[in-house]
Amino acid sequence: MNVELAGPWVQTDGRVKQRFQRAGVAEAFLPEQFRYDPSSDIYVCPEGKHLTARHSHSAHPGRKMIRYQANQNDCWSCPSRHQCCSSNKRYGRSIVVTQEDPVVSSFRERQTTPEARGLMRERARMAEFVNAWLKETLGLRRFRVRGLQNARAEATWAILAYSVRQWIRLRWKPSLAV
Ligand code: SF4
Fold first, then answer.
1. Which residues line ligand 1 (CB under 6 A)?
2. Final residue belonging to a domain, choices 56, 86, 108
3. In this structure, which of 24, 34, 63, 169 has its CB flanked by the most CB atoms within 10 Å?
4. Quick check: is 6 in a domain?
5. Pairing state of beta strands 94-100 and 42-44?
């Protein structure tokens, strides 16, 4: 079966930029100004110092966050320190880089196309009322049972209840179907 997933994608770049601005980081020292050197897996800062990979974790499936950090001594003696990491008193400057699974990248790129945006608008029109009904009328904000099988059964009953209700409604008032 060839199924293509359409779903929302939240861009966080704007918020990240604001966070850096609040921390006093100048435009010339934002993460995109650090150059990656694939031959040694390091980032080179605008002053030519090296940031090496220190820590990584998977924040979401298919996305790995890697922290690259500069040497503390390099940053402390750096003439650009006040524009780059003045609020960082204990460590060298670090940047966090996201490594994406190719499947996630292609999903993200797809979501920017006009077709995908149209699909998302259609999804909201069709699905949001059902979601709201399940939450507000049936109180299905979280499952009352444990285990995948039981949760699946509860979800099936909820969907069935909605479908029967709609069926009755449309049988009595066929004009609504139009
Ligand atoms: S503070 Fe550190 S990371 Fe920033 S420019 Fe200077 S040496 Fe590079």
1. 29, 45-47, 49, 70, 74-75, 78, 80-81, 84-85, 92-93
2. 108
3. 34
4. no
5. unpaired
